[in-house]
Amino acid sequence: MGKTARVLFGALAGLFLLAPARGGAQVVPIGNLRTLKGTAVDPHTRTLYAMWPDSIRLYLAPDYRQSRLVKVPRLDADFPLSFHVVTADSTLYMVQGMGGMVYRLKGDSLRRLDHSFTHKMQIGSTLFVENDTIFRYGGYGFWSHRNFFTYFSKASREWEVVAPTGSEEVPPGSDNSYITRSGPYWYVFGGRVLDPIDPLRMHPNRDLWRYHTGEKRWEFLGSMKDNFEKNPMVVHLGDKILFGNPNRHEFFLVDPGNNRLTTHKITPKNYGVLPMDINARQGGSFYTDGQLYVLKSLNRPRAGDPDGKVGFEIMPLEDFLGPAVREEALYGRAGFPWGPAGGVLGAALAVGLLVLGRRRFRERDKILVGEGGMRYKGRRLDIDPRSLAVLLLLLRADRDVPAQQVLDLVEKPHLNPVHNIKVRNQVVESLNFRFKTLLETEEDLIRAYRSEQDKRIKVYRIDKGPFLLR
């Protein structure tokens, strides 16, 4: 067992109490915890495998009283923890954790199958088996993460890539992710992702994605509150994963396919369960055909010493899980923030109504004048273009308007100057009559004066009080 596994073992000691197996469940002793390096199970034949640095022992179903010991060579300095153990087509395979080498247990020997090498580009990749084919996802190497699946081809004896040709988006790469499968979907979550700026830093990955194997399409489902980095995996259930919570003495049952996170209470049947080595992905408990193969401590080791007898206790899943105490959504999709936005929209609406009310108050009993014409008390007033131009000129002026400027707006080139002056005067008189009738007043709103600077110059001035420019 690696350093990480020993740390997790110590953390879970208080949680699971390291009590002996109890009850009527079948128990298969497999050896000593200190020397045991890995375990596996064949879901078809239900053969159990236990690994040591120099050998593999096969425990044969159905009663596991018969076993067979196979001596194996030391493949490298870190063997067997440098290899991941999986079973496919009722055969034990050992896959290199830092590269692409693949060994198969055939008879009493390990035989190499691949044409690969130790590329160190998928460190911490997640290994799983689908239809007797070995897949791996993600992994870290050369300051970058992988975000694709590869599979070992028995025909080419190489690792081939799975291209997500149906995707419009792909997840960020990650290592030490968890994968569950349900129907055509593979769900990927947890693990670590690189900092997008600093490739020497990693962050917990809380995003949950799923991959449709038929359509070869990725889909982002949402973000989780917890990526379970500090909750060691207890057993992989295929479409679910059971994690342990050392701090709260609880189990978390993670069900990505149904967006469900169920918390279960610890019961005496759970005592003594050993965690999986989260880094080496070695050992741990297994699940197949409704039966749990729970790796447990079979005696109480001495204080501070993790040595002790271990074995598998076989029982139905429903016998192992304690009562559910809480159920909640596993992930949430970041959508429109209706709560905060509602407050903002409400405030904006109140401000808008206030502005509209103030505007309506200002417009009350006012003649609204703009480039589009005139309105009064909600009614549109007809006005010819020349009269509107004169009215706008007077309303926009900061001082008196020379009569010549008014004349320039209304004069007609084919008329003589005297006639054009009459046209100007008619436009002004028509406007005054219109406003006196509209406002029921006897006063002219547009008046003519002599300029204070030059008494020879005639100017116009308008009472702007009844008007509102728009």
TrEMBL record:
Keyword field: Membrane, Signal, Transmembrane, Transmembrane helix
Signal peptide limits: 1-25
Transmembrane region(s): 336-356
Name of the protein in its database record: Uncharacterized protein
Species the sequence originates in: Robiginitalea marina
